[in-house]
Design a protein that fits this description.
Layout (H helix, E strand, L loop, with lengths): L2 E6 L8 H9 L8 E5 L2 H9 L4 E5 L1
Antiparallel strand pairs: 1-2, 1-3
Amino acid sequence: MARVIITQIKSTNNANKNHIATIRALGLKKIGQTVEHEATPSIMGMVRQVAHLVRCEEV
């Protein structure tokens, strides 16, 4: 399966509580932090939900 690199590019200040929880579930805590995950449907759905806060690149 493909892997994706997810980087937080915007702050979660004034974000919806569900979006903040999704960012935390992805393993991100601060702007500029990067994590790598498998590109499963659940991870990609989480990325789509917070697409305005993160940058996603396939490896």
